[in-house]
Design a protein that fits this description.
By secondary structure, the protein is of the alpha/beta class. It has a single domain (11-246), classed as NAD(P)-binding Rossmann-like Domain (Rossmann fold, 3-Layer(aba) Sandwich), CATH 3.40.50.720. It is 42% helix and 17% strand. The chain is built from seven helices and seven strands. The chain has helices at residues 20-31, 44-54, 68-81, 105-126, 152-172, 199-211, 221-232; strands at 11-15, 36-41, 58-62, 85-90, 130-139, 178-184, 243-246. Strands 3-2-1-4-5-6-7 form a seven-stranded parallel β-sheet, sandwiched between helices. Strand 2, helix 2 (44-54) and strand 3 (58-62) form a beta-alpha-beta unit. The N and C termini lie far apart (35 Å). The model has no long low-confidence stretch (mean pLDDT 97). The structure holds NADP nicotinamide-adenine-dinucleotide phosphate. NADP nicotinamide-adenine-dinucleotide phosphate binds next to helix 1.
Length: 253
């Protein structure tokens, strides 16, 4: 049995590819031999930098995943390229607190539009351009199952992502397309700086998250990327409809 993570000749798409987990995962797919990579994100400068790290195999597509029209335009570009996708990492997401007492409606709607609606209409638009037998990985979070006080709406969006993975695994099984979600624990990425907390408070927040992990530290994007590549590889050919925590033991704490 050949045990390796070889993506030679494979065509891959990653959303949220300009930053953090998505960017590192796109690089990991490239290092594992992917023939072409679609990098999708809102952040055009970040996308250009991510593509430069990979070279000519990377194609960028600036898009807001909460907009159905963006997905239709992306699907048209993928169709034009004429190379159906073998692996999709639908990872773009946003994170901020929504206290029950006073969170505004707009913040609620945006979390669901990006983290939940974006996945549904993204996969719907791309499906005709996904190869039978492909693998889809949805980025969830341990917050789907674990209480993060003040983050109930984010947590609810990620619980929805876990439900999608199970449901879509059923719907796409006739095409042998595997669908799984992956739940990172606290991972050091720019997502936390986007909370706008003063540095000292941010350091305290990260420190407290690290202490809630069995391994006693926050994780690295490379550690999530390794799990994404595993789920997208032939090594995971009998795995579909699961949620894989990549959390240093956060859920076991
Ligand atoms: N880091 C963690 O501890 C952690 C833990 C559990 C789950 N996750 C999940 O992991 C995923 C990636 O997070 P990350 O930590 O790598 O965050 P990140 O560094 O902020 O990267 C997320 C990327 O997605 C982009 N994005 C945001 N909204 C978008 C939209 N509407 N359309 C297209 N792109 C959009 C962001 O662009 P902007 O910079 O312009 O917003 C950013 O480039 C998210 O789904 C997150 O919920 C992260």
């Amino acid at each position: 049995m050949k045990l390796n993570l070889d993506f030679t000749g494979r065509h891959v798409l990653v959303t949220g590819a300009a930053s953090g987990i998505g960017r590192v995962t796109a690089n990991a797919f490239a290092a594992a031999g992917a023939e072409s990579l679609w990098l999708v994100d809102l952040d055009e400068a970040g996308l250009a930098a991510a593509a430069a790290e990979i070279g000519p195999r990377a194609q960028t597509f600036a898009a807001d995943v909460s907009q159905v029209a963006s997905h239709q335009a992306l699907a048209a570009r993928v169709a034009e390229a004429g190379t159906p996708l073998d692996a999709l990492f639908l990872n773009a997401g946003i994170f901020y607190p929504t206290p029950l007492a006073d969170a505004p409606e707009a913040g609620y709607d945006k979390l669901f539009a990006v983290n939940v609606k974006g996945l549904f209409f993204g996969l719907q638009a791309l499906l005709p351009h996904v190869r039978d037998g492909a693998s889809v990985v949805l980025c969830s979070s341990v917050a789907a199952q674990y209480v993060l006080p003040g983050y109930s709406v984010y947590s609810a969006t990620k619980a929805a992502v876990n439900a999608y993975a199970r449901q879509w695994a059923h719907e796409l099984a006739p095409r042998r397309i595997r669908v799984n979600s992956l739940s990172p624990g606290p991972i050091e990425t720019p997502i936390f700086a986007k909370l706008g907390l003063p540095q000292e408070q941010l350091d305290g927040f990260m420190g407290s998250l690290g202490q809630m992990v069995l391994l006693g530290r926050v994780g690295r994007s490379e550690e999530v990327a390794a799990a994404v590549l595993f789920l997208c590889s032939d090594l995971a050919s009998y795995i579909t409809g699961i949620d894989l925590p990549v959390d240093g033991g956060y859920l076991a704490f």
